[in-house]
Design goal:
90 residues; 3-stranded antiparallel β-sheet
Length: 90
């Protein structure tokens, strides 16, 4: 009898859809308060997941999905930097 492996699911803060963890990108807040794009999803810190599309990122900015996830205000320059990092990964 084959054992089915459980696929970890996460919710995108942009569109709100549940998707497999590997299909999403992790936005990370480090212990020092810095925000990064965690491409492999292995770094330490508080994370929020988002689809690998710029449209979904823009939805998250507009709906303040990232701010809700991290429970704090996020400066505009952080959003600009994260968008540039996402363009580089896409």
């Amino acid at each position: 009898m084959a054992v089915k492996k459980k696929i970890p699911m996460r919710k995108c803060v942009g569109c709100g859809e549940m998707k497999p963890k590997k299909d999403l990108m992790r936005i990370l807040k480090t212990e020092t308060g810095e925000f990064l794009v965690d491409a492999d999803g292995k770094k330490n810190g508080r994370g929020a997941y988002i689809c690998r599309s710029v449209e979904c990122f823009r939805k998250a900015v507009k709906s303040k999905g990232l701010e809700r996830s991290f429970k704090q205000q996020i400066p505009e320059e952080v959003y600009d930097r994260l968008e540039k990092e996402m363009d580089g990964i896409e």
